[in-house]
Amino acid sequence: MVALAGIQTVRDWMTVGEKTEPVRVDILEQFWHVDRLWLSLQAPSDVVDEAIGKYQADQLKSWVRTFCPLYWLGLSIDWLVGEAFNVVTLFGGNPEIPKG
Fold first, then answer.
1. Spatial distance between the Cα atoms of 35 and 4, rounded to a whole number of angstroms
2. Which of 1, 5, 58, 88 is the least crowded, having the fewest Cβ atoms under 10 Å away?
3. CA–CA distance from 66 to each of 30, 36, 50, 51, 76 (Å)?
4. Within this chain, do residues 38 and 81 fall inside the same structural domain, yes or no?
């Protein structure tokens, strides 16, 4: 859910304790090792709280997207175009290189 919210989990985190330089780490991937990395135990919940905040801020727009027929029309067109490229690729074509 954090990735779907567009929240980056790889960050420079300030360490606590003996080390004082920032460490670049994917905090959700290293969730069980935050104590060994000298990271704050609050760091994983900070990332999740940021994702929750983004979802709460986008709540009204999500309702509009759910019930707006123009949104679904655009989504359908995107899907059809994507499938057209998949069909071209299936028959040996490369949609990125024009022939001519």
1. 27
2. 1
3. 35, 44, 23, 20, 14
4. no
| 8 Å CB contact between 15 and 39 | yes
The answer to whether the CB of 38 falls within 8 A of the CB of 20 is no
Residue keyed to tokens 């024009």: 98
70 and 52 together in one domain: no
Mean pLDDT across the stretch 14-22? 69
Domain count, the chain: 2
Residues 80 and 46 in one domain: no
- Alpha-carbon span 65 to 33, nearest angstrom: 39
CA distance 97 to 100: 9
